[in-house]
TrEMBL record:
<dbReference type="InterPro" id="IPR029441">
    <property type="entry name" value="Cass2"/>
</dbReference>
<keyword id="KW-0805">Transcription regulation</keyword>
<dbReference type="Pfam" id="PF12833">
    <property type="entry name" value="HTH_18"/>
</dbReference>
<dbReference type="InterPro" id="IPR011256">
    <property type="entry name" value="Reg_factor_effector_dom_sf"/>
</dbReference>
<dbReference type="GO" id="GO:0043565">
    <property type="term" value="F:sequence-specific DNA binding"/>
</dbReference>
<dbReference type="InterPro" id="IPR018062">
    <property type="entry name" value="HTH_AraC-typ_CS"/>
</dbReference>
<dbReference type="InterPro" id="IPR010499">
    <property type="entry name" value="AraC_E-bd"/>
</dbReference>
<dbReference type="InterPro" id="IPR009057">
    <property type="entry name" value="Homeodomain-like_sf"/>
</dbReference>
<dbReference type="InterPro" id="IPR018060">
    <property type="entry name" value="HTH_AraC"/>
</dbReference>
<dbReference type="InterPro" id="IPR050959">
    <property type="entry name" value="MarA-like"/>
</dbReference>
<dbReference type="Pfam" id="PF14526">
    <property type="entry name" value="Cass2"/>
</dbReference>
<protein>
    <submittedName>
        <fullName>AraC family transcriptional regulator</fullName>
    </submittedName>
</protein>
<dbReference type="GO" id="GO:0003700">
    <property type="term" value="F:DNA-binding transcription factor activity"/>
</dbReference>
<feature type="domain" description="HTH araC/xylS-type">
    <location>
        <begin position="15"/>
        <end position="114"/>
    </location>
</feature>
<keyword id="KW-0804">Transcription</keyword>
<dbReference type="InterPro" id="IPR020449">
    <property type="entry name" value="Tscrpt_reg_AraC-type_HTH"/>
</dbReference>
<keyword id="KW-0238">DNA-binding</keyword>
Amino acid sequence: MVIGMDRPPTPDLVADTLAWIEGRLDERLTLARLADRAGLSPYHFSRLFTARMGLAPMAHVRARRLVRAARRLAAEPGLRLVDLALESGFESQEAFTRAFRRHFGTSPGRFRRGLAPPDGDPPMPHPAERSRAVARLPGLVTRDAFTVAGPTRRFDPATAATIPDLWSHLIQALPFVDGQVPSWSTYGVVWSADRQEGSFDYMAGVGVRADGPLPAGFVRKTIPAATYAVFRITLDGTALPPQVKGAMATIWGELIPASGLAVADSPDFELYDGRFAPDRPGTVIDVHVPVVA
């Protein structure tokens, strides 16, 4: 594992990264630089940071620069917006204005004319929402390529809470006779994660044949052959989404870093077997994370 040269990370990589970013907002910060400093691949660092903070690393950097820009707007009446935009890392005044409006709900000009600067305290990691009901299974698992199909959408940290809607769509369509393989196992598949923004494609799917008809709105996707580390979530019978969210923070924030494994840039997936019952204590979900063998 290669550690970045700025200074070694503390055990809490995210908290340490937040403080480090705060003192370097004037510098050229990239996902690669942040990940290198943490000793992780950009893909792994982005998943870890997003699971812990609820937004992607570079989205956090952009938000902190906007907070600092708002302070300067209030404190420096003669500051030109175009200069502030460029000094805040934006390519143009127009891009800065759009980002400022999205973040604060008002334009820089209106902000300057009467609003107080926002609270500038840097956000800290979410309190321990991690789960202890998750553990890595021994060894690694190699799987041949297989094909799944189901409703698919692109999500980001702000919309991820609506993922259960895809599962409702899937369940309403099951079973379908012609294309589905003879199994009741289902898959929650993640791929095409945007490391900068934290967005990703997600499918609630079932195994299908490589061809044949599918229900309306279903998409077919082939998962390539890969080697996986498998993490088992054991449910307690309470609401499912908070348990999965906490378990993912534990997997990406603790168990994968502790394993020393390098995460491969390939789809990862949750496997729900045919006996899955979310309200039954002891039911399990096996999360498959592709790794470099």
